[in-house]
Structure formats: structure tokens, C-alpha cells
Amino acid sequence: MTKLNLVLMGLPGAGKGTQAQRIVEDFKIQHISTGDIFREAMKNETKMGVEAKGFIDKGELVPDSVTNGIVEDRLSMDDVNDGYMLDGFPRNLDQAKALDEMTGRLNKPVTAVINIHVDPEVLIARLSGRFICKNCGATYHKLYNRPKVEGTCDVCGHHEFYQREDDKPETVKNRIAVNTKLNTPLIDYYEDKHLLYNINGDQDIDDVYSEIQKVLKAL
């Protein structure tokens, strides 16, 4: 059986987190989230972790060379010999090429790239639908979780609501646009290498997962 060495892609709000959990549980592979390995490397004060902390403490972006080093350190560990899933890496074309080189050196090449695709307009509606009761902090959603009585909080009966800055449609639109710009060259790159599998993320969570399962079992 082919080892499952995966890259998981998808725009914010596409449901990557939920699907990642299921993939890891069912296929027994290591979930490598860049946020987690960064924190781990800094906590353990590895050479690359110390370098990364230097940039983060100054409020600067961590350069690709350091990010790539931290990912390579993680991929060289024995617990990923039976498969891994990268989440949050690569973020750009240079990182994707670096990933090819390091996985070649380690003899752990990427076998598939799973891209959970959702129409950006749908994502904007999903991500900007959240609103919060000003009085008690109860959270609602315009699409999935409206108050039982329009304009009245179910919990405390208050009538004033607000939206967090990062939930506002303009902020969300900008975030989606930035991520689309980053993802598009990666999608083309992996398509050319015949590694890309597009999954329709605009359906029920279980249906999304069964589509992913079919792909992974076929590998």
C-alpha cells in the first residue's frame, strides 16, 4: 500500500480542521500543523526554533529558510515514517519546491494533495455570519444558529448584538483574497505534478469526508 504522505489545502472556513481530525484518526498518520511545530521547536529551543523566535519577537515574518528547516526537522522524525499530513505548509511556491527537495532527501515524498474547495462567496457568508450578544456574550450565526426570536438573545433576552472586527464581511473578504492569491499557484503546481485532488467542500461535512476517504483508499 502506498504510504499516505499528504498536504491538506483549503481556504479559511473550508472545514480543514474537522476533516484533518477524521483523516488522522482513520488513517493513523501524523498531523503536522505548522503552528504546532513552530511552538514545539521554540519550546524545545532547537536551532531553528531559536531562529524563528528571534523573528517572531521582533514582529517580523519568519523567512522561508527557517520555516523549511523546522518542517524538515519534523519530517525527519521516526513517527512520520508511516505517513504524515501537512497542514499550513507549503504556503507558497518556494516552500512547495523546498518540500519536494526535503522529502526527496528523506525518502518521504508527497503522495497526494487534498484541496477542499468551497466557493469564496460561500466562505464569506460562512465566516462573516457570526454575531454576539452585547450583554451576555452568547454567540449566534446568521446562517446556522439564529436566535429563536429575531433580535432577542435566547440566553438573556437582550436586544443588542455586535460583530467582532475579524468577523466583519470586509475583513473576511480581504482574508479570503489574500489566501486565494497564495493558494492559486500551489494548486497549479500540484495539478501539473498530478498530485492534486479537488474535494467539493460545499456539502455536508460527512459527504466531504466520504469523498476524501474514497480518494485516500484508492491510493
Automatic annotation (TrEMBL):
Does the record's keyword annotation contain Zinc?
Answer: yes
User: What EC numbers are recorded for this enzyme?
Assistant: 2.7.4.3
Family note = Belongs to the adenylate kinase family.
Regions crossing the membrane: none
GO annotation (BP), single: AMP salvage
Give the species this sequence originates from: Pediococcus argentinicus
Q: Where is the Adenylate kinase active site lid domain?
A: 130-166
The molecule here is called Adenylate kinase
Free-text comment about domains = Consists of three domains, a large central CORE domain and two small peripheral domains, NMPbind and LID, which undergo movements during catalysis. The LID domain closes over the site of phosphoryl transfer upon ATP binding. Assembling and dissambling the active center during each catalytic cycle provides an effective means to prevent ATP hydrolysis. Some bacteria have evolved a zinc-coordinating structure that stabilizes the LID domain.
Subunit (UniProt):
Monomer.
